[in-house]
Design a protein that fits this description.
single chain; 360 residues; alpha+beta; QueA-like; Thrombin, subunit H; 2 domains; nine-stranded mixed sheet; six-stranded antiparallel barrel; 20% helix; globular; QueA_dom1
Length: 360
């Protein structure tokens, strides 16, 4: 399986540069399995596709204002993107500079304080920050929100609110779980009124989510590491949902990665079951992998040749996904973080219908 198998042509004009005025006004392409027709809807119509007793699972990570600027002690300008907060005001970060800083070098930060370069591993640097507070608290006042590289503008005041989900609570991501950006209070209330239940996992999305696949054979690709927590309460919610015949619906690929990372075999369940798990994951999901933890997936449109495009292809079928992407390009859907959404059902399941309608 080659990286080029996941290439498609995307007009630059379809890359969303800003969010819509209303979160749930984004379009939603419903992708049933097999040869059933694609359905053009809006995210607010999600309530019609879910049933009482279904469980929506959200990623409740919160984006860090992780972008900083400064100057090396040798005079060169640098940009810092924090990837991971570590104990004792340490952090793992990417550094953009005309010349790579060396261990022992110091960076004077424009926002005050400084950072010492402790070392480097691959593209990430280990930094120790000398700032007048805990690094997490200081960043909330001094850092800038890091927008994805394909958004060709600086982050504005509106992004501070719109590049966070309304249920974000656990600080630690450097990129938003973008499928969750479509949910507002009105949509959540409508879903709750329908009898849909909500659950949460935490997966701190890292800057590695934007890294391209650099090998031709996708099986040779090494995924970046991200921290996640699937708690015991969410595991019980999933088990109860399945026991009553409800469906587990992931809001975003990060939820799928978290749940699949927490899927474990046991003596009682040789085929595996969801179990509580907190720790690192490098799980890489591409066609040939069977996703077992979710029954439907709401997700945005992803970059060509990306690991996320490979994940959704594993879930709904590669040809089905590419047919849907062709449709989305023709119909001028908006792509990537601030773009529109897709509601995917796995190819092996019966065709879904909006709740309240029937198939004969």
């Amino acid at each position: 399986m080659k990286k080029s198998d996941f290439h498609f042509e995307l007009p630059e004009a379809l890359i969303a540069q800003a969010p819509l005025a209303e979160r749930s006004a984004s379009r939603m392409l419903v992708v049933p399995p097999a040869d059933a027709a694609l359905v053009d809807q809006h995210v607010r119509d999600l309530v019609d596709w879910l049933r009482p007793g279904d469980l929506l699972v959200f990623n409740d990570t919160r984006v860090i204002p992780a972008r900083l600027f400064g100057q090396k002690d040798t005079g060169g300008r640098v940009e810092i993107l924090i990837e991971r907060l570590l104990p004792d005001n340490h952090a793992r970060a990417q550094i953009g500079a005309s010349k790579s800083p060396r261990p022992g070098g110091r960076i004077q930060l424009d926002a005050g304080g400084s950072a010492e370069v402790l070392g480097r591993e691959g593209e990430f640097y280990q930094l120790r920050f000398d700032v007048p507070d805990s690094l997490e608290s200081w960043l909330l006042k001094a850092g800038r929100l890091p927008l994805p590289p394909y958004i060709q503008r600086e982050a504005g005041v509106d992004d501070d609110e719109r590049y966070q989900t309304v249920f974000a609570r656990n600080l630690g991501a450097v990129a938003a779980p973008t499928a969750g950006l479509h949910f507002d209070d009105a949509l959540l209330a409508a879903l709750r009124g329908k009898g849909v239940e909500f659950g949460h996992v935490t997966l701190h999305v890292g800057a590695g989510t934007f890294q391209p696949v650099r090998v031709d054979d996708v099986r040779q690709h090494h995924m970046h590491s991200e921290w996640l927590n699937v708690g015991a309460s969410l595991v019980e919610q999933v088990r109860a949902t399945r026991a009553r015949g409800g469906r587990v619906v992931a809001v975003g690929t990060t939820v799928v990665r978290a749940l699949e990372s927490a899927w474990r075999s046991s003596d009682a369940s040789p085929g595996g079951e969801l179990q509580p798990f907190a720790g690192e994951t490098r799980i890489f999901i591409f066609p040939g992998y069977r996703i077992r933890s979710v029954d439907a997936l709401l997700t945005n449109f992803h970059l060509p040749e990306s690991t996320l495009l490979m994940l959704v292809s594993a879930f709904a079928g590669k040809q089905r996904i590419f047919d849907a992407y062709d449709h989305a390009v023709r119909e001028r859907y908006r792509f990537f973080s601030y773009g529109d959404a897709m509601l995917l059902f796995p190819a092996q399941h019966p065709e879904p219908t909006p709740a309240g309608s029937h198939t004969d």
